[in-house]
Amino acid sequence: MAGRKQFDVDAALDAAMTRFWRAGHAATSVDDLCRVTGLNRSSLYSTFGGKDALFLRCLDRYATRYGEKYDAALSCAASDPLAAVRAFFQVTLDRIADPALPDGCLIAQSALAIPVLTEDVAARAKDALGAQRKRLRAALKASRLADQHAEDFAEHAAAVNQSLAVMSRGGASPAQLRAIVGVTVEALSHALPTHT
Known about the structure:
By secondary structure, the protein is mainly α. The chain is built from nine helices and no strands. 32% of the residues are buried. GO terms for molecular function: DNA binding.
């Protein structure tokens, strides 16, 4: 249609995701979203359905983008579970070290805000956290770790992974974050069937 402004939906979603990631859901206003996406309110609402709907799309986009990287990292778990878990954590460490990205993790930040989020947004944040535990559990079970140990280490590794994001926001150094990962990987090495 002549005279209608065109825009890149992917670029707008990335800009909104970065804003939510940097400031959090509560501290991000519709005006902020209009500014970073370059859309007016009418276009923002007609395209994305408002702040919560846009946030859900951003959260899904983030979970998919990093979920694919985590899945690739864990793909060797059956043959080399320690390498898989190290690679899993490396995805997080690389994201934290990237100066082009905000500190922390959009999912961790959303989880911290669950008490003040709408029911739909809180449920999606919980689902995103749960997906990380599920992928870790499946990988650890593939490594022939006993079911209860796989469950326990999946919970632990997911919690450590989220804490890395929180600690990075608090100023922890890359060396401190790597040391935390090292303790977790070392503990896992003693639980694997090859260690008797």
